[in-house]
Design a protein that fits this description.
With about 130 residues, the protein is mostly helical. It has helices at about 5-30, 45-50, 55-80, 85-110, 125-130. Helices cover about 75% and strands about 0% of the residues. The relative contact order is 0.12.
Length: about 130
Amino acid sequence: MRPIRIWIILRIGCAIATVRIFPIRTVIKSRIVSINSLAGRVALTEEEKFYASSKSLLDGLYGGATIAEIDMIDLKYAIDVSTPIDLIVAYQNLMEGSKSHLRAFVRSMETLDYTYTPQYISQELYGAIIGL
């Protein structure tokens, strides 16, 4: 498997994530908070290690699924501590995107005859998301 294929998957993932930034950007701007104008450019040092160690397509998919799990935990916390409804709705929409990403990564791993085991979310939540 050539490394370029992994980078194509990562680029598609980044493009999708960039599209999801815009609703959050609107919420942030409505609260008069200064934000960086570089859409899609964020420092993800913790997440980068999952991609940096990717030596194969399977490694890249595994890293993507792991990041989707971490995102869900962070978003659940943000939903739990937020009170403004527009923030809650924005976080819920992002949560649905993370669930969709997890499903896509897991399905892709299954085509490679790999069974993914969740690292950060419960088996029960994982089963509900994946449809087990």
